Amino acid sequence: xxxxxxxxxxxxxxxxxxxxxxxxxxxxxxxxxxxxxxxxxxxxxxxxxxxxxxxxxxxxxxxxxxxxxxxxxxxxxxxxxxxxxxxxx
Length: 89
Fold this sequence. Notes:
The protein is 12% helix and 39% strand.
């Protein structure tokens, strides 16, 4: 990801999240739960109920990246990255 010299705020969602949620579901949590804008370039972190898996949501201005990370025997690994382009209205 390119940061372009901009300071980025990082927010963590306080409650556990269903890890089946995709970009739209996590964006709704940002809007409704954190009263934020998922398209403002900040980073939003969500964790699973067992606190083993996490998803990071970030909008870089061209596409939204959602990264899921899991932990196995103490080792963390990236298990997938999803990119979605913004639709023009």
